[in-house]
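To make this tangible, we now present a fold written out as tokens:
***
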Amino acid sequence: MSRGRRITGLVIIICALTMLVIWEKWAKPALVYDKIPVLKIDLQKGDELKDSMIAYVESICGEKYISKAEIDKYIGTKAKHFIHKGTPLFSEYLGKPDTLVDISKDRLAVVLPKTAIHNYSSRIKKEDIVLIYDEADLILRAKVSSVIDDTHGFELITGQSEAAKLSEAISKGRKLLIVRGS
């Protein structure tokens, strides 16, 4: 009976050690660690994030890091502040992906000069949503892609039909009404 207990005890110890090795070698990295994006170089405030700046490291993801699957949405965004190399990327460090200006095949960048706007405000800034009216008609709702200068106007991205309406109104000498919206 004691020999049977010894063999059983030895088998249990060997099984436990085998399970420990399997856990540490294969299961733990696969189940606990995730590959998260980190920066290869320092990123200054306002610098654009590029794919070549990103490396992936394994880490325990207990916080809200940008995952490997969603990093593509953040490529092209600008850093809100200095980010040190080797730092895991958080969404708070970068601009919002939905604020990226995507000029696809049907989109145009239109510059609205200050002279064409009846109520020009220097408070309009990049990424503001603006509503543009010609007389009483809403021409378009667009996001400001850049402010050229406080005295010259701003640029926005719009479709071809809205750009044609803007061009027609400006060419006829009518002043446009701008309203900041949401």
The chain is about 25% helix and 30% strand.
